[in-house]
Request: fold
Amino acid sequence: MATKSDYYDILGVSKSASADEIKKAYRKQALEWHPDKHTGSDKEAAEKRFKEINEAYQILSDSQKKGAYDQFGHDAFTPGGAARENPFAGGFGGQQGQYGPFTYTYSSSGGGNPFANMDFGDPFDIFESFFGRGGNPFGARQRRAIPRYSMKIDFMEAVRGVEKSVNIGGGKRTIKIPAGIYEGARINFGDFSLSVNIKPDNLFERNEDDIYVNVIIPYSLAVFGGEIEVPTIDGEVKIKIRQGTQPGTMIRLKEKGVTHLRGRGKGDEYVKLNILVPEKPTREQREIIEEMKEEGL
Reply:
C-alpha cells in the first residue's frame, strides 16, 4: 500500500507552525494547484495534489485533529489505528461524490468518525469554504450545481470593495464585492457563483494584503535626508528619509495596505527607495562628482 505524504510536508510548514501560518500556507498551495490553472495531462496531477492539500489543511487547521495527528500520525484516521486511545479512529472510507468542480467528500467506513461527510470545498469559494460557514471552514453541506460567472474589476475596486450591476439569468442584480478581495477568489451568492479577476495597477503591486510601491528620490535627498510624500492606496503621506539612505532601502508603512478580508486590520505598505542618477550631469555636477570620486565616494 502506498505511503501517505506527511501533512506538514504537503503544506510546507513545520510542526511548530501557528494557525495563521498554516492558513497562509494552505492558501498559497491551493492557489498554485487549483485544477482550473492546469490543463491536459497536468490537470489530473493537479486534482490529486489539490485533494491532498485540502485534506492536510482540514486536519492541521483543527486543534483536536492536529493533536491526534501529531501523536498517532495517519494511524489516527485509519480503521483500527490507535483505536482504543484515539477519539478520531474510524478513518476515511474512501472518496465519494463528484468533482463538481473540485469538491471532495469523504465518508467513514466505520461509525463515530467526526470527519464523515466533510466537504473539502474550493478554497476560492471565500464565504463558504476558505473562511467557513458559522466558523467552520469545512462545514458539511449539500452542494447543488449552480451557474458560474467571472468578472474583471479594477485594482482599487478590489482594495476598497465595490457594488456592481450584473445581468444574471436575464435579470439585473446588484452584487457587493467586499474590500480586500483577492485574485481568483470565488464568491457564492447562493443561486450563482462569481470568480473575480483583478486588473493590475500601474503604480501599486499587491502580495496578500501588503502593498509594494517604488519611489524615486533625488541623489541629494538620499545624501542629506529630508521629507517626501509617497503614494498609498488611501492617498499620499509624508515620510522621513534618513541621511545617507542607500539605493533599494525599504520603508514599512504599518497598516497602509489592504483591508483584511476576514477579520480586523490591514496589511502594510512597503516603499522601495530608488535613487535618481542624472543621465547628463551639468558641468557643476560633474565637478562635484569628480571631487567625490577622488575622495572614494
